[in-house]
Amino acid sequence: MTTMEWSKLLDLERLFLTSSQERPRRPAYDQDADRITFSAPFRRLANKTQVHPLYDNDHIHHRLIHSVETASVGRSLGLEVGWWLEQEGKIEKGGQATVAGLVHAACLAHDIGNPPFGHSGEAAIGAWFAERFERGEGLFADREACFAEEFEAFEGNAQGFRIIAGLEMHRRGGMRLTHGTLGAFLKYPVTARTRKSVAARDGGLKKFGVFETEREALEAVATRTGLIAGDISASWWRRHPLVYLVEAADDICYNILDLEDAFTAGDLSYREAAGMLSAVAGTTPRDDRGDTPSEKMAFLRAVAIHKAFEDCSAAFGAHYDAIMSGTFASGLVEASAQADRFAEIGRLASERIFTSPRKTELEVMGRNLVHRILDGVLPVLEALAEADFTEERIEGYPRQLQRALGIDLRRARDPYSALHTLADYVSGMTDRYAVKIDRIISG
Protein backbone atom coordinates (compact mmCIF):
# COMPACT_ATOMS: atom_id res chain seq x y z
CA MET A 1 0.00 0.00 0.00
CA THR A 2 1.32 3.44 -0.96
CA THR A 3 1.79 5.80 1.96
CA MET A 4 2.81 9.42 2.19
CA GLU A 5 6.14 10.45 3.71
CA TRP A 6 6.54 13.09 6.39
CA SER A 7 9.86 14.23 4.95
CA LYS A 8 7.91 15.48 1.92
CA LEU A 9 4.66 16.42 3.65
CA LEU A 10 6.45 18.95 5.87
CA ASP A 11 8.24 20.61 2.93
CA LEU A 12 9.24 24.18 3.79
CA GLU A 13 10.29 25.34 0.32
CA ARG A 14 8.09 28.06 -1.14
CA LEU A 15 5.68 27.86 -4.06
CA PHE A 16 7.38 28.57 -7.41
CA LEU A 17 10.71 29.45 -5.80
CA THR A 18 13.68 27.22 -6.65
CA SER A 19 15.31 28.02 -3.32
CA SER A 20 14.47 30.05 -0.24
CA GLN A 21 16.72 31.47 2.44
CA GLU A 22 16.81 29.50 5.69
CA ARG A 23 16.23 31.59 8.82
CA PRO A 24 16.74 29.32 11.84
CA ARG A 25 15.50 31.97 14.28
CA ARG A 26 12.34 32.55 12.25
CA PRO A 27 10.95 29.30 10.83
CA ALA A 28 9.29 29.32 7.41
CA TYR A 29 5.89 28.37 8.86
CA ASP A 30 5.99 31.41 11.13
CA GLN A 31 6.70 33.55 8.08
CA ASP A 32 3.68 31.93 6.41
CA ALA A 33 1.49 32.89 9.37
CA ASP A 34 2.82 36.45 9.27
CA ARG A 35 2.17 36.81 5.53
CA ILE A 36 -1.41 35.66 6.03
CA THR A 37 -2.01 37.79 9.14
CA PHE A 38 -0.78 41.02 7.56
CA SER A 39 -2.61 40.53 4.26
CA ALA A 40 -5.59 42.67 3.24
CA PRO A 41 -7.91 39.68 2.58
CA PHE A 42 -7.27 38.40 6.12
CA ARG A 43 -7.94 41.82 7.62
CA ARG A 44 -11.24 42.04 5.74
CA LEU A 45 -12.48 38.94 7.57
CA ALA A 46 -13.17 41.25 10.52
CA ASN A 47 -16.28 42.44 8.69
CA LYS A 48 -17.44 39.18 7.14
CA THR A 49 -20.24 37.03 8.50
CA GLN A 50 -19.53 33.88 10.48
CA VAL A 51 -23.15 32.88 11.17
CA HIS A 52 -25.04 36.06 12.11
CA PRO A 53 -24.92 38.79 9.40
CA LEU A 54 -24.46 42.48 10.26
CA TYR A 55 -24.78 41.97 14.01
CA ASP A 56 -24.26 44.93 16.36
CA ASN A 57 -23.30 42.78 19.38
CA ASP A 58 -19.48 42.78 19.52
CA HIS A 59 -19.47 39.39 21.29
CA ILE A 60 -20.86 37.63 18.20
CA HIS A 61 -18.19 35.93 16.11
CA HIS A 62 -17.10 37.22 12.72
CA ARG A 63 -14.79 35.42 10.31
CA LEU A 64 -11.58 36.99 11.60
CA ILE A 65 -11.95 36.01 15.26
CA HIS A 66 -13.19 32.57 14.17
CA SER A 67 -10.03 32.17 12.07
CA VAL A 68 -7.79 33.22 14.97
CA GLU A 69 -9.55 30.83 17.37
CA THR A 70 -9.39 28.00 14.84
CA ALA A 71 -5.67 28.64 14.41
CA SER A 72 -5.20 28.44 18.18
CA VAL A 73 -6.97 25.08 18.40
CA GLY A 74 -5.17 23.91 15.26
CA ARG A 75 -1.79 24.71 16.74
CA SER A 76 -2.69 22.74 19.87
CA LEU A 77 -3.77 19.78 17.74
CA GLY A 78 -0.52 20.06 15.81
CA LEU A 79 1.54 20.07 18.99
CA GLU A 80 -0.30 17.04 20.37
CA VAL A 81 -0.16 15.03 17.15
CA GLY A 82 3.39 16.20 16.45
CA TRP A 83 4.48 15.00 19.89
CA TRP A 84 2.85 11.62 19.21
CA LEU A 85 4.56 11.37 15.82
CA GLU A 86 7.91 12.08 17.45
CA GLN A 87 7.35 9.50 20.18
CA GLU A 88 6.41 6.89 17.58
CA GLY A 89 9.51 7.69 15.53
CA LYS A 90 7.47 8.76 12.52
CA ILE A 91 9.05 12.21 12.26
CA GLU A 92 12.45 13.50 13.32
CA LYS A 93 12.99 15.08 16.72
CA GLY A 94 11.98 18.72 16.53
CA GLY A 95 9.35 18.00 13.90
CA GLN A 96 6.56 18.65 16.39
CA ALA A 97 7.02 22.41 16.01
CA THR A 98 6.85 22.15 12.23
CA VAL A 99 3.61 20.16 12.34
CA ALA A 100 2.05 22.69 14.73
CA GLY A 101 3.34 25.67 12.74
CA LEU A 102 2.01 24.44 9.40
CA VAL A 103 -1.42 23.64 10.87
CA HIS A 104 -1.53 27.03 12.58
CA ALA A 105 -0.76 28.89 9.34
CA ALA A 106 -3.25 26.87 7.29
CA CYS A 107 -5.96 27.46 9.91
CA LEU A 108 -5.39 31.21 9.77
CA ALA A 109 -6.08 31.12 6.02
CA HIS A 110 -8.86 28.54 5.97
CA ASP A 111 -11.71 31.07 5.53
CA ILE A 112 -9.81 33.76 3.62
CA GLY A 113 -11.81 33.14 0.43
CA ASN A 114 -15.26 33.42 1.98
CA PRO A 115 -17.54 36.04 0.36
CA PRO A 116 -19.74 38.55 2.21
CA PHE A 117 -22.74 37.15 4.12
CA GLY A 118 -21.12 33.76 4.70
CA HIS A 119 -22.43 30.62 3.04
CA SER A 120 -25.56 32.41 1.87
CA GLY A 121 -23.33 34.85 -0.02
CA GLU A 122 -21.48 31.90 -1.53
CA ALA A 123 -24.78 30.41 -2.68
CA ALA A 124 -25.95 33.78 -4.02
CA ILE A 125 -22.86 34.17 -6.22
CA GLY A 126 -23.28 30.63 -7.56
CA ALA A 127 -26.98 31.13 -8.29
CA TRP A 128 -26.33 34.37 -10.17
CA PHE A 129 -23.68 32.78 -12.38
CA ALA A 130 -25.93 29.76 -13.01
CA GLU A 131 -28.70 32.06 -14.27
CA ARG A 132 -26.29 33.87 -16.57
CA PHE A 133 -24.80 30.70 -18.01
CA GLU A 134 -28.30 29.38 -18.63
CA ARG A 135 -28.99 32.43 -20.80
CA GLY A 136 -25.67 31.86 -22.59
CA GLU A 137 -25.14 35.45 -23.72
CA GLY A 138 -21.99 37.56 -24.06
CA LEU A 139 -19.25 36.52 -21.65
CA PHE A 140 -21.35 33.48 -20.72
CA ALA A 141 -21.72 32.06 -24.24
CA ASP A 142 -19.08 29.32 -24.01
CA ARG A 143 -19.65 27.11 -20.96
CA GLU A 144 -16.68 24.84 -21.66
CA ALA A 145 -14.10 27.56 -22.23
CA CYS A 146 -15.29 29.47 -19.17
CA PHE A 147 -15.38 26.42 -16.87
CA ALA A 148 -18.95 27.24 -15.90
CA GLU A 149 -18.96 24.64 -13.12
CA GLU A 150 -16.45 26.75 -11.16
CA PHE A 151 -18.86 29.67 -11.00
CA GLU A 152 -22.22 27.91 -10.77
CA ALA A 153 -21.12 26.19 -7.55
CA PHE A 154 -18.92 29.04 -6.34
CA GLU A 155 -16.64 27.70 -3.64
CA GLY A 156 -14.94 29.77 -0.94
CA ASN A 157 -12.24 27.14 -0.46
CA ALA A 158 -11.17 27.49 -4.10
CA GLN A 159 -11.31 31.28 -3.85
CA GLY A 160 -9.11 31.05 -0.75
CA PHE A 161 -6.50 28.99 -2.58
CA ARG A 162 -6.69 31.49 -5.45
CA ILE A 163 -5.95 34.33 -3.01
CA ILE A 164 -3.02 32.74 -1.18
CA ALA A 165 -1.49 30.98 -4.22
CA GLY A 166 -2.39 33.39 -7.02
CA LEU A 167 -3.71 36.86 -6.25
CA GLU A 168 -2.12 38.27 -3.12
CA MET A 169 1.41 39.79 -3.14
CA HIS A 170 3.17 38.19 -6.12
CA ARG A 171 1.93 37.84 -9.70
CA ARG A 172 3.01 34.20 -9.68
CA GLY A 173 2.51 32.18 -6.54
CA GLY A 174 0.51 34.70 -4.53
CA MET A 175 1.87 34.85 -0.99
CA ARG A 176 4.39 32.15 -1.93
CA LEU A 177 3.69 30.15 1.19
CA THR A 178 5.50 26.90 1.90
CA HIS A 179 4.34 23.74 0.17
CA GLY A 180 3.60 22.28 3.61
CA THR A 181 1.21 25.07 4.57
CA LEU A 182 -0.50 25.00 1.17
CA GLY A 183 -0.88 21.23 1.40
CA ALA A 184 -2.48 21.55 4.84
CA PHE A 185 -4.83 24.22 3.44
CA LEU A 186 -6.03 22.12 0.48
CA LYS A 187 -9.15 20.56 1.94
CA TYR A 188 -10.32 19.54 -1.54
CA PRO A 189 -7.28 19.00 -3.81
CA VAL A 190 -9.24 18.81 -7.05
CA THR A 191 -10.54 21.23 -9.71
CA ALA A 192 -14.25 21.55 -10.46
CA ARG A 193 -14.01 19.95 -13.89
CA THR A 194 -11.93 17.02 -12.69
CA ARG A 195 -14.29 16.42 -9.77
CA LYS A 196 -17.20 16.40 -12.20
CA SER A 197 -15.57 13.69 -14.31
CA VAL A 198 -14.29 11.42 -11.54
CA ALA A 199 -16.60 8.59 -10.54
CA ALA A 200 -14.76 7.66 -7.33
CA ARG A 201 -15.91 9.24 -4.10
CA ASP A 202 -13.44 10.42 -1.51
CA GLY A 203 -13.39 12.82 1.44
CA GLY A 204 -11.37 15.20 -0.68
CA LEU A 205 -13.99 15.11 -3.46
CA LYS A 206 -16.99 16.31 -1.46
CA LYS A 207 -16.44 19.68 -3.14
CA PHE A 208 -13.80 21.18 -5.39
CA GLY A 209 -11.06 23.32 -3.91
CA VAL A 210 -9.07 24.72 -6.83
CA PHE A 211 -9.92 26.76 -9.92
CA GLU A 212 -8.29 26.01 -13.27
CA THR A 213 -6.36 29.27 -12.85
CA GLU A 214 -4.44 27.67 -9.96
CA ARG A 215 -4.05 24.18 -11.43
CA GLU A 216 -0.29 24.68 -11.82
CA ALA A 217 -0.01 25.64 -8.15
CA LEU A 218 -2.04 22.58 -7.12
CA GLU A 219 0.22 20.30 -9.15
CA ALA A 220 3.34 21.90 -7.67
CA VAL A 221 2.10 21.48 -4.09
CA ALA A 222 0.97 17.89 -4.68
CA THR A 223 4.30 16.95 -6.27
CA ARG A 224 6.51 18.58 -3.66
CA THR A 225 4.57 17.21 -0.68
CA GLY A 226 4.16 13.74 -2.19
CA LEU A 227 0.38 13.58 -2.12
CA ILE A 228 -1.08 10.35 -3.48
CA ALA A 229 -2.65 10.76 -6.92
CA GLY A 230 -6.30 9.78 -7.34
CA ASP A 231 -7.28 6.43 -8.78
CA ILE A 232 -8.65 7.72 -12.08
CA SER A 233 -5.96 10.17 -13.13
CA ALA A 234 -3.18 12.31 -11.72
CA SER A 235 -5.30 15.46 -11.86
CA TRP A 236 -6.67 15.04 -8.33
CA TRP A 237 -5.00 13.94 -5.14
CA ARG A 238 -5.69 12.42 -1.74
CA ARG A 239 -5.65 14.82 1.17
CA HIS A 240 -2.53 15.93 2.98
CA PRO A 241 -2.69 14.39 6.52
CA LEU A 242 -2.55 17.81 8.18
CA VAL A 243 -5.78 18.79 6.41
CA TYR A 244 -7.58 16.60 8.95
CA LEU A 245 -6.18 18.67 11.82
CA VAL A 246 -7.17 21.94 10.13
CA GLU A 247 -10.64 20.56 9.46
CA ALA A 248 -10.99 19.30 13.04
CA ALA A 249 -9.97 22.66 14.50
CA ASP A 250 -12.59 24.36 12.32
CA ASP A 251 -15.27 21.81 13.24
CA ILE A 252 -14.53 22.13 16.95
CA CYS A 253 -14.62 25.92 16.92
CA TYR A 254 -17.67 26.56 14.80
CA ASN A 255 -19.82 23.88 16.44
CA ILE A 256 -19.00 24.87 20.00
CA LEU A 257 -18.87 28.61 19.46
CA ASP A 258 -22.05 28.64 17.36
CA LEU A 259 -23.81 27.47 20.53
CA GLU A 260 -22.32 30.27 22.59
CA ASP A 261 -23.22 32.84 19.91
CA ALA A 262 -26.75 31.45 19.68
CA PHE A 263 -27.13 31.93 23.44
CA THR A 264 -25.75 35.48 23.20
CA ALA A 265 -28.06 36.29 20.27
CA GLY A 266 -31.09 34.85 22.06
CA ASP A 267 -31.67 32.02 19.59
CA LEU A 268 -31.10 29.37 22.29
CA SER A 269 -31.87 29.43 26.00
CA TYR A 270 -29.10 28.94 28.54
CA ARG A 271 -30.44 25.49 29.38
CA GLU A 272 -30.37 24.40 25.72
CA ALA A 273 -26.89 25.72 24.93
CA ALA A 274 -25.33 24.70 28.25
CA GLY A 275 -26.85 21.23 28.00
CA MET A 276 -25.16 20.64 24.65
CA LEU A 277 -21.81 21.96 25.84
CA SER A 278 -21.98 19.95 29.07
CA ALA A 279 -22.40 16.76 27.04
CA VAL A 280 -19.18 17.49 25.13
CA ALA A 281 -17.28 18.73 28.18
CA GLY A 282 -18.35 15.86 30.41
CA THR A 283 -19.01 18.26 33.27
CA THR A 284 -21.34 21.00 34.47
CA PRO A 285 -20.49 24.41 35.95
CA ARG A 286 -20.58 24.85 39.71
CA ASP A 287 -23.61 26.65 41.09
CA ASP A 288 -21.98 27.89 44.32
CA ARG A 289 -19.74 30.55 42.77
CA GLY A 290 -22.33 33.09 41.78
CA ASP A 291 -21.31 33.01 38.10
CA THR A 292 -23.58 34.58 35.52
CA PRO A 293 -25.00 32.43 32.71
CA SER A 294 -22.47 33.99 30.32
CA GLU A 295 -19.60 33.08 32.65
CA LYS A 296 -20.89 29.53 32.95
CA MET A 297 -21.10 29.31 29.16
CA ALA A 298 -17.49 30.50 28.87
CA PHE A 299 -16.38 27.80 31.32
CA LEU A 300 -18.24 25.09 29.42
CA ARG A 301 -16.90 26.33 26.08
CA ALA A 302 -13.30 26.12 27.30
CA VAL A 303 -13.67 22.62 28.75
CA ALA A 304 -15.62 21.39 25.70
CA ILE A 305 -12.94 22.63 23.30
CA HIS A 306 -10.23 20.91 25.34
CA LYS A 307 -12.14 17.62 25.50
CA ALA A 308 -12.89 17.68 21.76
CA PHE A 309 -9.24 18.49 21.04
CA GLU A 310 -8.11 15.47 23.07
CA ASP A 311 -10.56 13.14 21.35
CA CYS A 312 -9.65 14.35 17.85
CA SER A 313 -5.95 13.91 18.60
CA ALA A 314 -6.65 10.34 19.68
CA ALA A 315 -8.69 9.74 16.51
CA PHE A 316 -5.72 10.80 14.37
CA GLY A 317 -3.56 8.14 16.00
CA ALA A 318 -6.29 5.50 15.79
CA HIS A 319 -6.74 6.07 12.05
CA TYR A 320 -3.13 6.90 11.25
CA ASP A 321 -2.56 4.18 8.63
CA ALA A 322 -5.69 5.11 6.66
CA ILE A 323 -4.83 8.81 6.83
CA MET A 324 -1.30 8.21 5.54
CA SER A 325 -2.49 5.97 2.70
CA GLY A 326 -5.17 8.44 1.61
CA THR A 327 -8.04 6.05 2.33
CA PHE A 328 -9.49 7.74 5.42
CA ALA A 329 -12.97 8.83 4.32
CA SER A 330 -14.18 10.68 7.40
CA GLY A 331 -13.29 13.67 9.52
CA LEU A 332 -11.58 13.42 12.90
CA VAL A 333 -14.63 14.72 14.76
CA GLU A 334 -16.84 12.11 13.09
CA ALA A 335 -14.28 9.41 13.90
CA SER A 336 -13.85 10.50 17.53
CA ALA A 337 -15.65 9.72 20.76
CA GLN A 338 -17.48 13.04 20.30
CA ALA A 339 -19.15 12.04 17.01
CA ASP A 340 -22.70 11.63 18.35
CA ARG A 341 -22.55 14.79 20.45
CA PHE A 342 -21.34 16.92 17.55
CA ALA A 343 -23.99 15.40 15.29
CA GLU A 344 -26.61 16.47 17.83
CA ILE A 345 -25.14 20.00 17.88
CA GLY A 346 -25.37 20.05 14.09
CA ARG A 347 -29.02 19.02 14.17
CA LEU A 348 -29.85 21.69 16.73
CA ALA A 349 -28.00 24.33 14.68
CA SER A 350 -29.91 23.37 11.53
CA GLU A 351 -33.26 23.52 13.31
CA ARG A 352 -32.81 26.55 15.55
CA ILE A 353 -29.71 28.63 14.78
CA PHE A 354 -29.40 28.71 10.99
CA THR A 355 -33.14 29.28 10.61
CA SER A 356 -33.62 32.10 13.12
CA PRO A 357 -35.92 34.84 11.74
CA ARG A 358 -33.33 37.63 11.84
CA LYS A 359 -30.67 35.49 10.16
CA THR A 360 -33.08 34.30 7.47
CA GLU A 361 -34.29 37.83 6.71
CA LEU A 362 -30.73 39.13 6.38
CA GLU A 363 -29.74 36.19 4.17
CA VAL A 364 -32.57 37.05 1.78
CA MET A 365 -31.44 40.68 1.83
CA GLY A 366 -27.83 39.62 1.28
CA ARG A 367 -28.71 37.40 -1.68
CA ASN A 368 -30.61 40.21 -3.41
CA LEU A 369 -27.83 42.66 -2.62
CA VAL A 370 -25.12 40.37 -4.06
CA HIS A 371 -27.20 39.87 -7.22
CA ARG A 372 -27.67 43.63 -7.63
CA ILE A 373 -23.94 44.22 -7.29
CA LEU A 374 -23.11 41.52 -9.85
CA ASP A 375 -25.73 42.94 -12.22
CA GLY A 376 -24.33 46.43 -11.70
CA VAL A 377 -20.66 45.55 -12.20
CA LEU A 378 -21.13 43.18 -15.16
CA PRO A 379 -21.38 46.05 -17.73
CA VAL A 380 -17.77 46.98 -16.93
CA LEU A 381 -16.58 43.51 -17.92
CA GLU A 382 -18.85 43.49 -20.98
CA ALA A 383 -17.40 46.83 -22.09
CA LEU A 384 -13.91 45.46 -21.57
CA ALA A 385 -14.73 42.49 -23.82
CA GLU A 386 -16.09 44.84 -26.51
CA ALA A 387 -12.80 46.76 -26.27
CA ASP A 388 -10.83 43.55 -26.99
CA PHE A 389 -9.84 43.41 -23.31
CA THR A 390 -7.90 46.67 -23.54
CA GLU A 391 -8.74 48.68 -20.45
CA GLU A 392 -7.71 52.02 -21.96
CA ARG A 393 -10.37 51.66 -24.67
CA ILE A 394 -13.32 51.45 -22.25
CA GLU A 395 -15.43 54.59 -22.52
CA GLY A 396 -18.53 56.22 -21.11
CA TYR A 397 -20.46 54.97 -18.09
CA PRO A 398 -18.59 51.61 -17.77
CA ARG A 399 -15.30 53.53 -17.51
CA GLN A 400 -16.79 55.89 -14.95
CA LEU A 401 -18.19 52.97 -12.95
CA GLN A 402 -14.88 51.09 -13.06
CA ARG A 403 -13.06 54.12 -11.65
CA ALA A 404 -15.71 54.85 -9.03
CA LEU A 405 -15.69 51.28 -7.72
CA GLY A 406 -11.95 50.68 -8.08
CA ILE A 407 -12.33 47.49 -10.12
CA ASP A 408 -8.94 45.97 -10.98
CA LEU A 409 -9.08 44.73 -14.59
CA ARG A 410 -5.43 43.80 -15.05
CA ARG A 411 -6.05 40.05 -14.99
CA ALA A 412 -9.06 40.10 -17.34
CA ARG A 413 -7.70 38.97 -20.73
CA ASP A 414 -10.55 36.79 -22.04
CA PRO A 415 -14.11 35.82 -21.01
CA TYR A 416 -12.93 33.23 -18.46
CA SER A 417 -10.50 35.54 -16.65
CA ALA A 418 -13.04 38.38 -16.88
CA LEU A 419 -15.58 36.29 -14.98
CA HIS A 420 -12.97 35.51 -12.33
CA THR A 421 -12.25 39.23 -12.08
CA LEU A 422 -15.94 39.79 -11.39
CA ALA A 423 -16.03 37.00 -8.80
CA ASP A 424 -12.80 38.26 -7.18
CA TYR A 425 -14.25 41.73 -6.81
CA VAL A 426 -17.56 40.72 -5.26
CA SER A 427 -16.33 37.84 -3.10
CA GLY A 428 -13.61 40.05 -1.63
CA MET A 429 -16.10 42.53 -0.20
CA THR A 430 -16.94 42.76 3.47
CA ASP A 431 -20.59 42.75 4.48
CA ARG A 432 -20.69 46.49 5.12
CA TYR A 433 -18.68 47.38 2.02
CA ALA A 434 -21.13 45.34 -0.06
CA VAL A 435 -23.98 47.41 1.40
CA LYS A 436 -22.08 50.58 0.45
CA ILE A 437 -21.38 49.43 -3.12
CA ASP A 438 -25.01 48.42 -3.54
CA ARG A 439 -26.06 51.94 -2.58
CA ILE A 440 -23.64 53.46 -5.09
CA ILE A 441 -24.82 51.20 -7.91
CA SER A 442 -28.50 51.49 -7.07
CA GLY A 443 -28.37 55.25 -6.59
UniProtKB/TrEMBL annotation:
Residues 63-255 form the HD domain. Keywords: Hydrolase. It comes from the Bacteria. Pfam families: HD, HD_assoc. GO terms for molecular function: triphosphoric monoester hydrolase activity. SMART domains: HDc. NCBIfam families: dGTP_triPase. This is DNTP triphosphohydrolase. It comes from Martelella lutilitoris. The lineage of its organism: Bacteria, Pseudomonadati, Pseudomonadota, Alphaproteobacteria, Hyphomicrobiales.
